[in-house]
Amino acid sequence: MKVVIDSAIPYIKGILEQHAEVVYLPGLDITHDDVKDADALIIRTRTYVGRALLDNSRVRFVATATIGTDHIDLDYCRKNNIAVCSAPGCNARGVLQWVAAVLHQVVTTDGAAPSDYTLGVVGVGNVGSLVSQYARHWGFRVMECDPPRQEREGGEFYDIEDIAKQCDIITLHTPYDKTTRHLVDAALLQHMPPHTTIINASRGGVVDNRAAMYSGHRYIFDVWEGEPEIDLKVLHHAMLATPHIAGYSLQGKANATAMCVNAFAEFFGLPITDWYPEGVVRTTPRLISWEELCTTIAKRYDITAESETLKLDGWEFDNLRDSYTYREEYF
Asked: What is the DSSP letter of 17?
């Protein structure tokens, strides 16, 4: 058995070698020739998986160490009996703590308190539900928008137009597909009060980046249209900017790799279905107060320094992302 693995996936080297021939390659460099005799792929978003890569190959299983699957042609895989596994929720607490750092920066910059804001959470899945829970605990008024959940469950969800009109801060945590591309566009931006702050840690294309810049609204992006060749003008107008690392926590990366390894092992019947990286301490979830957040977050994660680095070296987007030192989750 042969498996091709993105060489940037952490903690995985040496784990599968006793069970398979393992080839490590940079994600962008993986080609059809590399995978034609492979049984499995373990990748990240750098590798587009579809007909061009997999046609006439032996691949039966694809795992991605990411929560999203928009880099995988799921229809093609389904029609060709190729199993696909992702890592939903793996980095939810890492993203939560990135959002916490952003909210702290917005509130303190404004000289205000959480109770002064209505926060719109768009996309209430693994990440969005945590953001809502903690934001309410911190004193924000929270409005949630999630059309698929609203259709399934009913409940108190709001339309995106209501979120735009009523919220002081809007944070986006949706998947990226044809229904969410440019969800925040010029038309929606016109519904927003001038003081509204837009936060995007989902996918770059969920927000029309140029429309956000020209609207005059304050925005904070971790994800960008055109990555890694991002629009430097959009970058420099951002209040805060990071290089697609909101979920880059130590535990988030460990979780993603473990989910891929365990799914691989289960699919191929290997005795390592409960593996987790040695030396990584799993997060103990706890609700922390706004006061504790204010006294700890800058020491744990200096988002302003990170933003300054990206604004100085925006053309180094991929290098900054690939060389990132993973943060430790602490709540």
From this structure: T
Q: Which of 244, 306, 327, 329 is catalytic?
A: 244
Predicted TM-score (pTM) of the model is 0.91
Does 46 share its domain with 180? no
Round to whole Å and give the CA distance between 230 and 228.
6
Q: Which of 19, 71, 181, 227 is catalytic?
A: 227
Candidates 58, 55, 31; CA nearest to 43 is: 31
- Residue 176 is part of a domain; what is its CATH number? 3.40.50.720
State pLDDT tens for residues 20-69: 999 999 999 999 999 999 999 999 999 999 999 999 999 999 999 999 89
The owner of tokens 């993105």 is: 6
In which domain, by residue range, is 20 found?
A: 2-86
pLDDT digits (tens, 9 = 90+) for 280-296: 999 999 999 999 999 99
Amino acid present at 214:
Y
Among the options 93, 104, 203, 218, which is catalytic?
203
56 and 176 together in one domain: no
Q: End of a domain among 86, 107, 138?
A: 86
203 is catalytic: yes
The b/e string for 155-173 (b: 16+ C-beta within 10 A; e otherwise) is eebbebeebbebbbbbbbb
Residue 102 lies in a domain: yes
164-167 long-range contacts (CB < 8 A, ≥24 apart) are 164/120, 164/188, 164/189, 164/191, 164/192, 164/196, 165/191, 165/192, 165/193, 166/118, 166/120, 167/118, 167/119, 167/120, 167/143, 167/196
